[in-house]
Write a structure and sequence with these properties.
This protein is elongated. It has a domain at 10-62. Helix 2 packs across helix 3 (48-62). It is mainly α and 81 residues long. Helices cover 58% and strands 0% of the residues. The two termini are 26 Å apart.
Length: 81
C-alpha cells in the first residue's frame, strides 16, 4: 500500500479508496478537498463562536487587521478544482 498523507486508519482509508473508484475514479485529493471544504462550511454555519475564532485565526495568518473578514466559498485561495 502506498504511503498516505494522513493516517486515516485502515478501514477509513479502504472506504475512501472504494468511494473514489465508485465515483468514476475521482482522485483521493479531490474527494478529501471537497469533503473538508463542506465540513468547514457546515461547522462555521452551525457554530457562530467557532466562526469568530476561525476568522480571527485567518486574519492573523493573512496579516489582516481591523477588517470584517468573512469566509466566502470559491474565493481566491479556495483550492477546489
Amino acid at each position: 500500500m502506498s504511503k498516505e498523507l494522513f493516517n486515516l486508519g485502515e478501514e477509513l482509508s479502504e472506504r475512501l479508496k472504494d468511494f473514489c473508484e465508485a465515483n468514476w475514479g475521482a482522485s483521493k485529493v479531490r474527494v478529501v478537498r471537497d469533503a473538508l471544504n463542506q465540513f468547514i462550511i457546515s461547522r462555521l454555519d452551525e457554530e457562530p463562536k467557532l466562526r469568530e475564532r476561525y476568522e480571527e485565526e485567518r486574519r492573523k495568518r493573512l496579516g489582516i487587521t481591523d477588517t470584517n473578514l468573512h469566509v466566502v466559498s470559491g474565493g481566491v485561495d479556495d483550492e477546489s478544482p
